[in-house]
Write a structure and sequence with these properties.
Layout (H helix, E strand, L loop, with lengths): L4 E6 L5 H15 L5 E4 L8 H14 L4 E6 L5 H13 L4 E5 L7 H7 L6 H11 L3 E6 L10 H13 L4 E4 L5 H13 L6 E5 L5 H11 L5 H10 L3 H21 L4 E5 L21 H5 L1
Helix pairs in contact: 5-6
The protein binds flavin-adenine dinucleotide.
Length: 289
């Protein structure tokens, strides 16, 4: 288990109550020896400044490395490079480089100046600013807007060839989909490590809505299991933790050893995977208290 690496994704909290929950989760997860934390950027076109502030706060109070997500959709090259430069200046060495979901006003950016045309282009641009450690996104079930499975994998190859250090998958629930995807990357000559993005199903209804938006299919077995426990908070908690542990274990059995956990700003109990001896002292937990 010692070669298994876990990173944890958070989104910038929107108000004081969610901010407290966020820091509690950070403090909890810090005790499980995280590889790094990541903070999403401008999801649904909002909160970009908040995202940079949260990255800065995390860098100040936690010893865990922090990756800033950065999306180029809707911004000019100059605008996005300014943010990247600022991130570098505040001590960020890791970027998750993304297109971002298309916004209604995305075309307006082209009126303001030149824009990045692809994530590969973006990765190259970022590497001219600083030798960032760069992660990109990938899609075991194919991105819903991709022209074809082949086009999707070619796009991923271009991102990797541009210098990405790893590719993090969209969440998925079917391990065979992940294995087929890994086979496709091998056939395409992609040697960049593929990191399994795992969503603990803590809130079934929320998960259904996310899965619908990003095209992740949900096995009937999972639907049945969650329907059986619906309304019983204790049983729901037991179920999601069991499903999460089992899913990660099965992936480890299939030689996957890098995981990116979509925390949704909730604590995740990783004691099943991380031994007590490995646990470092949590600094930010103290900052929250
Ligand atoms: P690409 O590599 O360009 O797209 C992936 C595939 O979809 C390619 O095949 C591409 O051709 C196709 N595609 C995408 N958009 C289009 C389009 N408009 N027309 C035609 N084909 C298209 N979003 C955020 O806003 N903020 C975040 O912080 C964030 N973090 C993420 C982290 C991870 C690990 C993942 C998996 C996704 C994240 N996303 C985030 C969502 C991501 O921005 C969307 O999935 C976006 O639609 C594609 O981004 P990409 O970087 O994969 O782009």
């Amino acid at each position: 288990m010692t070669n298994t690496a876990f990173s944890y994704e958070f989104f910038p909290p929107a108000n004081n109550v969610s901010e407290r929950a966020f820091w509690r989760s950070v403090g909890c997860i810090e005790t499980f020896d995280p590889g790094y934390f990541s903070v999403t950027y401008g999801a649904l076109g909002s909160g970009q400044a908040r995202s940079v502030r949260v990255v800065k706060d995390l860098l100040e109070v936690s010893d865990v490395p922090v990756a800033a997500h950065l999306t180029f959709e809707g911004a000019t090259i100059e605008e996005i490079n300014t943010v990247a430069l600022h991130l570098k200046e505040i001590g960020v060495d890791r970027i998750v480089a993304l297109r971002g979901d298309a916004r209604e006003d995305a075309r307006l950016a082209y009126d303001r100046g030149p824009c990045y045309e692809s994530v590969a282009d973006f990765v190259s641009g970022l590497l001219k600013i600083h030798p960032f450690d760069i992660s990109v996104a990938c899609y075991p079930e194919v991105h819903p807007m991709a022209q074809s499975e082949q086009a999707d994998i070619e796009e991923l190859k271009a991102k990797c060839d541009a210098g990405a250090n790893r590719a993090i998958t969209q969440f998925f629930f079917n391990i065979d989909d992940f294995e087929r995807f890994r086979d496709r990357t091998v056939r395409a000559g992609i040697t960049t490590p593929i990191v399994a993005g795992v969503l603990p199903i803590r809130d079934y209804q929320k998960m259904i809505s996310f899965a619908g938006r990003c095209g992740a299919s949900i096995p009937a077995r999972i639907n049945k299991a969650y329907h059986r426990v619906a309304g019983d908070a204790a049983a729901e908690k037991k179920l999601w933790q069991h499903e999460f542990n089992t899913f990660v274990e099965q992936l480890i059995e299939r030689e996957c050893n890098q995981f990116h956990i979509y925390t949704l700003n909730q604590p995740v109990d990783m004691s099943h995977f991380i031994s007590v001896e490995q646990k470092p002292i949590a600094r930010s937990a103290a900052a929250v208290a």
